[in-house]
Amino acid sequence: MTVKYEKTKGLTDKPLTYCPGCTHGIVHKLIGESLVELDILDKAIGIASVGCSVFSYQFFNCDGQQAPHGRACAEATGVKRVLPDNIVFTYQGDGDLASIGIAETIHAANRGENITVIFLNNAIYGMTGGQMAPTSLIGQKTTTSQDGRNQADHGNPIKISEMFSTIEGVAYLERVSVHNPKNVIKAKKAIKKAFQYQKENRGFTMIEVLSSCPVNWGMKPVDALKWVESDMIPVYPLGVFKDKGVNDEKN
Amino acid sequence: MPKGKLTFEHDLCKGCGLCVEYCPQHILYQDKKTLNDSGYNIVSVSEPDKCIGCAFCAMMCPDSVIKVEVDK
Q1: Would you kindly state where each structural domain of chain A is located, as residue ranges?
Q2: Which fold has domain A24-250?
Q3: Where are the domains of chain B?
């Protein structure tokens, strides 16, 4: 018997603090596995954000730092510039990156900072109790939009990947989902590629991962993943939005 | 002969049921009579012989509960 799958060495033994069925755990595993497979775990530095993932620096088996709310990319910029040989990544949710942290993220992308951003989009503020996020869908009921989000009062959901695809400094940008095994495999491929690009000093890389929040959506974990497929993916289509590597290979 | 063998780290399980849902052989179930230290129903295999070792359960498990070994 050979081991086909076991807990990755990229994660510590500390039990995750996330709710049952939260896809944060799946994405943590993918990052850990990618770092181990690319043999960069001992060089990696993770920047945790504010939100549910505030303790993520305790879970990744590498160096870590926790940034003020929204400032993970600003902090990652500093870390990467001081330690250019290390692999620096941020792990941020949509309340952190798409709301309070949008300015530093856009400018880090525009400067083409050689960092990797793992952006989890679950269309809600998870840790604070299910408030409406910039990424909440039209009609989605949250504690601060109890009749559902409507365009007139709250605007449309912000599409981070579409927006960032216009920025020159971005080297690789893909939106993936983790709602079934097939997409988990694709998500891992994308995350690994982003780290590979950082290793090759190609510039800013970002992976947007559509994830679930069963507790604040008021769903069972399995139903929440089905909702990702049925309701979120039509609004946030999956795919590669920018890949400088493809152009480099053509030229 | 089963192609795969599953071992569970039951104390990490939070009973979310994602492994049960995504097992293509439908051989996983939540044991309603057994709780782990955190008070969640643990996951068990009903028919170990039918396991094909695809590791979909382990892949979907957010808490790294499942270890999969396969014959090779």
Answers
A1: 24-250
A2: Rossmann fold (3.40.50)
A3: 4-70
Identify the pLDDT of residue A59. 96
Per-residue model confidence as pLDDT tens digits over A38-56 = 999 999 999 999 999 999 9
What residues pair up with A172 in beta bridges, in sequence order? A205, A243
Alpha-carbon distance B23 to nearest alpha carbon in chain A (angstroms): 10
What DSSP string runs through A119-155? EEE-SSBTTTTSB--TTPPTT--BTTBTT---HHHH-
Query: Is residue A182 pLDDT above 90, yes or no?
Result: yes
Mutation site, A4, A60, A189, interface B, largest B CB count within 10 A: A4
Nearest residue on chain B to A181, alpha-carbon basis = B56
How far apart are the C-alpha atoms of A156 and A148, rounded to whole Å? 12
Amino acid at the residue B10: H
Once rounded to an integer, what is the mean pLDDT over residues B1-13?
A: 90
Arch. (CATH architecture) of B4-70: 2-Layer Sandwich (3.30)
* Residue in A closest to B71 by C-alpha: A1
Residue A150: partners with Cβ closer than 8 Å, 6 or more residues away: A138, A139
Q: Which of A207, A216, A198 is nearest to A236 (CA)?
A: A207
Residue-wise pLDDT for B13-42, tens only, equals 999 999 999 999 999 999 999 999 999 999
